[in-house]
Amino acid sequence: MNSRSLKHIVGLTRHDLTPRSLLHPHPRKQPSSISAQFQASLNQLLETVGRAEPFFIHCIRSNAEKKEMLFDDALVLQQMRYTGMLETVRIRKSGYNAKFTFKEFLEKFKVLLPKEATSAPKDIANLLQKMGLGQSTYQIGKTKVFLKERERQHLQDTLNKEVMRHIVILQRWFRACLIRRHFLCKKDAAIRIQRCWLAFRADNRCLAATVIQAAWRGSQERTDYLRMRNSVKKMQALIRNKQGPNRY
Q1: Nearest to 106 by CA among 89, 122, 95
Q2: Based on the number of CB atoms within 10 Å of its own CB, is 234 exposed (0-12), middle (13-18) or buried (19 or more)?
Q3: Which SUPFAM superfamilies is this protein grouped with (predicted)?
Q4: Computed over its alpha carbons, how large is the radius of gyration of the chain?
């Protein structure tokens, strides 16, 4: 059933609403009838169909017996010929089935173009010549670029490789940043450990020097004290020896 048939059915069902509205002139709202509900649903369906973009799907039978895991080459080829798929493929293959506006081409293949490139036809032609595409495989019009499917796929593959190359560069740069950050953290930790170790060793040396100096000074003081004590004892002994005869 197409949209024209649906509109015809809607036209046939519209006369059901007028008599009912005349039979009930009072302002009280009456429940909608089945025909009114059907018409409303049909109008909604027509609006949905009008907004939609139709796509046609050709179903190909793999075999006439409807068995699984069975492929009949002759039957499939016959169906593809009858549906016009082979002719469509041939036409699309021989024609320029891929088309882009200059702006769309620039946005899609911007990675392949130089940084200073614009959406001018000259820059696009330079890119296509640089890619090694023949003059018969593409056409540049006033507002659009036309490509054959093989050349479009070649451009797409080149774009994918270039994008992957940029991704690898970004990954390498990101890994380098992470490694550098880890290295700087380890370096800072090593510097802190070295600083603490040097401070600890300096404190130990200072403490050891202080202990040695204190021991040395104590030894010197004891030596001086003993020397002075011996000198005093000797002087006392001499004085006693001199005073001894005088007592008697």
Answers
A1: 122
A2: exposed
A3: P-loop containing nucleoside triphosphate hydrolases
A4: 52
Q: How many angstroms separate the CA atoms of 206 and 76, rounded?
A: 97
CB neighbours of residue 79 within 10 Å: 16
- Cβ 117 vs Cβ 102: under 8 Å: no
pLDDT at residue number 31: 63
| Rounded distance between C-alpha atoms, residue 35 and residue 41, angstroms | 10
Q: Which two tokens stand for residue 226?
A: 């003993």
Residue carrying the six token digits 């017996």: 65
Which residue ranges does the chain devote to CATH 3.30.70.1590? 97-197
Laid out side by side, the sheet with 138-140 consists of 98-101, 144-147, 138-140
In the chain, what is the straight-line distance between the N-terminal and C-terminal CA atoms, in Å? 164
Q: How far, in Å, CA of 140 to CA of 159, rounded?
A: 20
Residue 245: its pLDDT value, please? Answer: 60
Tell whether pTM > 0.85.
no
Q: Which stretches of the chain score pLDDT less than 50? A: 14-24
In sequence order, the β-bridge partners of residue 98 are 147
Do 37 and 10 contact (CB within 8 A), yes or no?
no
* Domain 97-197 indexed as CATH 3.30.70.1590: yes
Residue 22 has a pLDDT of 44
- 111 and 131 Cβ atoms separated by less than 8 Å: no
